[in-house]
Amino acid sequence: MSAQMIDWNVAVQTGSRLVRPGPQVSPEEARDVVEDLRRLARVAEGHVRDFTGLEAVGGAAHATVVDRPGWIRANVDGFRVVLEPLIDRMQERRGPLAGGPGGAVIQAVGSRVTGMQVGAILAYMASRVLGQYELFLPPDPSGQSPTGRLTLVAPNIVQVEREFGVDTRDFRLWVCLHEETHRAQFTGVPWLRSYVQDQMTEFLLASDVDPAAMMERLRQIAEAVADVFRGGDEDPDNPRPGLIDAIQSPEQREILDRLTAVMTLVEGHGDYVMDAVGPEVVPSVKEIRSRFQGRRDGGSRLDKAIRRLLGIDLKMKQYAEGSRFVRRTVTEVGMEGFNKVWASPDSLPTHAEIKEPSAWIARVVGTRSLEAAPPPEVSEG
């Protein structure tokens, strides 16, 4: 690329330095946790396949278990895969960084400073994430490695299960069920990964600002997060723009609706499956869900402010809306009917249909409306 906008090495170094240490465990305990998580990820694969009907490509799950700095490194790798080619394309369309006032700003800030800001955000996130299915990994020259990776953050899982006082086996399997569902989605539905990546690419390329100005906006968000960390308070009558607000142009709204709809579907589907596989699989699932929901809803004022700025509250809303959509659809047309959602991009629900499952059922499945269905259960997620 003509100029590096983010010093990714600095981002990793900063994030790894700032991230809080995990809970204290002995080396023997750490080895046991890693072994247990890898085993339970394989157990989860069978339950997800049997319950959802989705067959993950590659057979039994091979989970990568990481610590907090490991999660930061993995996510920086993913960001580079997605962002660097896009920034190159944006610069080709809109000119080099040095052209215009935006370029002067980003050069003054410097890629190292931007890397520090990104690292600070990753340090915050690294202490919260329990697991994820990493869609975007650096390409494997041999072509043998999978396109994605199921990753579990061991210290965060241990910390939460200790805080909740729940059965460790149940909690770990519960987390694995969610992430294994994502693996089944993105490897078992051949077009889904490329569809999400295409929508992300379109979204960023539709920006009405040059790359330097876009990075300046992102830097401002990072500074706002840092200010909250330092004890600054948000004015409730004049909140600062969040991450999505900062980079959205009018042309991007339609794309964002499609991207939000598909991510709401996959997140909600994961949340639905982790609860719905049944108490015979996770006997204490109701207790876990109740305590976990309290964690999602709670937090200090600082925590809530950062969640809003980084768009985490939007993700929590996606879990709830998506899970409700899946639950109501399966109740009405069964899992086989719901699985028509994976037939093609045209079968995906729109943002409006996520809120009104009967509209999606009428359009895609072609059965009676939800008005005839029993009332849905109250959502716990």
Mean pLDDT: 79
Which CATH architecture of the largest domain would you pick? Up-down Bundle
Query: What's the CATH H-level homologous superfamily of the largest domain?
Result: Zincin-like metallopeptidase, N-terminal domain
The CATH topology of the largest domain is what? Answer: Lysin
Give the proportion of residues in helices: 55-70%
User: What's the helix count?
Assistant: 16
Q: What summary fits the major beta sheet? A: 3 strands, mixed
Number of strands: 3
Whole-number total of structural domains: 2
Task: Please tell me what the overall shape is.
Answer: globular
Beta-strand residue fraction: under 5%
Secondary-structure element order, as H and E?
Answer: HHEHHHEEHHHHHHHHHHH
Q: Which structural class best describes the helix and strand composition?
A: mainly alpha
Protein name: Putative hydrolase/coenzyme F420 biosynthesis associated uncharacterized protein
Organism: Thermomonospora umbrina
GO molecular function: hydrolase activity
Pfam family, one: Zincin_2
Q: Could you please describe the fold and organization of this structure?
A:
It holds the Pfam family Zincin_2. Keywords: Hydrolase. GO terms for molecular function: hydrolase activity. The chain has 16 helices and 3 strands. It is mainly alpha-helical and 381 residues long. It folds into 2 domains: 1-93 and 107-188, Up-down Bundle (Lysin); 208-227 and 246-364, no CATH class. A 3-stranded mixed beta sheet has the order 1-3-2, sandwiched between helices. Helix 11 (253-276) crosses helix 14. The radius of gyration is 21 Å and the shape is globular.
